[in-house]
Amino acid sequence: MGELCVRSVLVTGANRGLGLGLVQHLLGLPKPPQWVFATCRDPKGQRAQVRPGWEAVAVLGDRSAQCQGGDRCSKAALNMLTKCQSLAYKEHGILCVTLHPGWVQTDMGGSSESFKPPLTIDASVQGMLKVLSSLSEKETGTFLDWEGKMLPW
Ligand SMILES: NC(=O)c1ccc[n+]([C@@H]2O[C@H](COP(=O)([O-])OP(=O)(O)OC[C@H]3O[C@@H](n4cnc5c(N)ncnc54)[C@H](OP(=O)(O)O)[C@@H]3O)[C@@H](O)[C@H]2O)c1
Fold it and tell me: What's the 108 CA to ligand 1 centre distance in angstroms?
């Protein structure tokens, strides 16, 4: 596996759950990205705190608003977006995949003892970063899980 080496990353929903986990893991990489844009829909909300080492940048409000539009698409629409972008950007060497994080202990995934998802946020995010670090042209336009297994659309 190669080391994940990226310059800029945009994360939506970065105030909690998988989005927050992703930002924390990216910043903890041996070679962290130069820029991690951590966005959320309510930057003034209780759960949108700026953490140590992070910097609040006002312009992210507008940027974040546009991305939340994408977040609100249905999953089927996001799948189609991946397919279309993978074709449009292939010639520029830009890879596009959809990742399934697994069933994860977040507010959305649930965390009660009787119905506990098997994966922690850390395990899921580490897995997804490992998958991203080893992506190649043959995977562009595919649907992969957090362990890199190809899933049917
Ligand atoms: N957890 C799982 O097992 C699992 C499995 C498969 C896929 N996923 C996908 O992984 C992604 C992250 O999920 P999670 O488990 O981390 O969930 P989570 O802990 O509930 O966090 C959800 C995040 O999405 C934001 N959000 C929710 N509705 C939004 C909207 N309409 N517009 C903009 N932002 C919105 C929330 O912002 P607020 O704090 O402002 O509400 C929060 O930052 C989701 O797309 C989910 O479908 C999760």
Answer: 6
Q: Find the 18 Cα to ligand 1 centroid distance in Å.
A: 7
The pTM of the full predicted model, rounded to 2 decimals, is: 0.90
Name the residue among 126, 99, 124, 106 with its Cα closest to residue 17.
106
Summarised one tens digit per residue, pLDDT across range 77-102 is: 999 999 999 999 999 999 999 999 99
In whole angstroms, what is the distance from residue 24 CA to residue 136 CA? Answer: 25
**17 in ligand 1 pocket by Cβ < 6 Å?**
yes
- Is 132 buried (19+), middle (13-18) or exposed (0-12) by CB count in 10 A? middle
**Ligand 1 pocket test target in 10, 12, 41, 121 with most atoms within 8 Å of CB:** 41
d(CA 59, CA 37): 10
Give the domain ranges of the chain. Answer: 1-72, 73-147
